[in-house]
Amino acid sequence: MDEKELILQLKNGNEEAFNEIVERYSKKLYFLCLKMLQNEKDAEDTVQTIFLKAYMNISRFEEKSSISTWLYRIGVNVCTDLLRKRKKENTASLYATSSEEEEYTLEIPDEKENVEESVLAQERKRALYAAIDTLKPKQKRLIILRDIEGLSYEEISDILKMNPGTVKSGINRARSALLEKLQKNSELFS
User: Fold this and answer.
1) N or C: which end of the chain has fewer CB within 10 A?
2) 59-87: pLDDT as tens digits
3) CATH 1.10.10.10 fits 104-190, yes or no
4) How far is the C-alpha of 181 from the C-alpha of 72, rounded, in Å?
5) What are the extents of the domains in the chain?
């Protein structure tokens, strides 16, 4: 079923159409939420919230963008709200201990890769995500949507309701800020 038909069916209350939307987009939304929230349980809960909000508000979806863009917009907004709530509650870190351990478990290196290279790659990944996590919220969203999720400038513009030129310049500033933070760990990136 193509997207337009799927949306029409969804707006008419077809439960199978909703299940199809969930099937198509739940993994992508989960990874977006996981990258923004750095917590598996919060990411899972947030994906459910996204789909609930989408289901409750499908009649207001104007189809000016794709359904995936609309879902990403809802996702970014829900994650941002949760991060603001966390900040107000003075939670310690965005990284949960168990989540961090699970996310960064070392894989057994294959014959082509030695243990030292594998450990260094994991350390680089940790440093990168830690640096992304310290960016301003707007910069963090831009980096995640563009460089991690691989969305186009136009999609990001639709999701964040920003001018495409503002998105491009914002991404450039966010990348510069990220590079500055990564240079503090230059021994990992030399």
Assistant:
1) C
2) 888 888 889 999 999 999 999 988 888 77
3) yes
4) 27
5) 1-95, 104-190
